[in-house]
TrEMBL record:
Matches recorded under SUPFAM superfamilies: Class I glutamine amidotransferase-like
CDD domains: GATase1_PB (cd01749)
This protein's name: Pyridoxal 5'-phosphate synthase subunit PdxT
Active site: 79, 178, 180
The protein's assembly and partners: In the presence of PdxS, forms a dodecamer of heterodimers. Only shows activity in the heterodimer.
E.C. number: 4.3.3.6, 3.5.1.2
Organism expressing this protein natively: Phycicoccus sonneratiae
Name of the coding gene: pdxT
Length: 203
């Protein structure tokens, strides 16, 4: 059974722990460098990315997290977690740092202040036939993606149609939305499969 951590400095940690356990993993919280070293995969939850960034640095987690990501650790970032995995942020220059790893440019709060949150059904081939109910909460989107990035989902309706909201680059997976709040654990299942595959490749 793979051990998958949830970065637990801020954000909706509990829901991810539950979804990972449902997906067949042993889920643990991660707050210290030694805990970063002990996991087979890691979830970066939604929350407030500027706060998570500050706490990651305050808890001396930035260097160990960057090292493990560079070494191929599977990481799933949801919403604020997507922001943390981005190599580049749009309209940056606020002093906010990311962990990086994924060759994407991400725009925070991309859907505008007036649309605080919304839901949409998305069709994601990698998750089978049934659409996924995607819950967006002050969500980012991927504005540019490099060649190594596989686009998994785009917004299908409305003014933001075509914007990338789920993507994968080898062992790194990101979604703009929050699958942990819907009771549909297929995104977490996909991530657990990525972790299992990476363990097989390493052994
Ligand atoms: N707007 C938040 C940020 O910029 C992300 C929101 C979320 O994770 N639900 O960090």
């Amino acid at each position: 059974t793979p051990t998958i951590g949830v970065l637990a400095v801020q954000g909706d940690v509990r829901e991810h722990l539950v979804a990972l356990e449902r997906g067949g993993a042993q889920a643990v919280t991660v707050r210290r460098p030694a805990e970063v070293a002990a996991v087979d995969g890691l979830v970066l939850p939604g929350g407030e990315s500027t706060t998570i960034d500050k706490l990651v640095r305050a808890f001396d987690l930035q260097a160990p997290l960057r090292e493990r990501i560079a070494d191929g650790l599977p990481v799933y970032g949801s919403c604020a977690g997507m922001i943390l995995l981005a190599d580049r942020l749009a309209d940056g220059a606020t002093g906010q740092q990311t962990l990086g790893g994924m060759d994407i440019l991400v725009r925070r709060n991309a859907f505008g202040r007036q649309v605080d949150s919304f839901e949409e059904d998305l069709h994601i081939r990698e998750l089978g036939g049934e659409p996924v109910r995607a819950v967006f909460i002050r969500a980012p989107w991927v504005e540019e993606a490099g060649e190594a990035v596989e686009v998994l989902a785009r917004v299908e309706h409305g003014p933001a149609a075509g914007r990338i909201v789920a993507a994968r680059q080898r062992n790194l997976l990101v979604t703009s939305f929050h699958p942990e709040v819907t009771g549909d654990h297929r995104v977490h299942q996909l991530f657990v499969d990525i972790v299992r595959q990476s363990l097989r490749e390493r052994s």
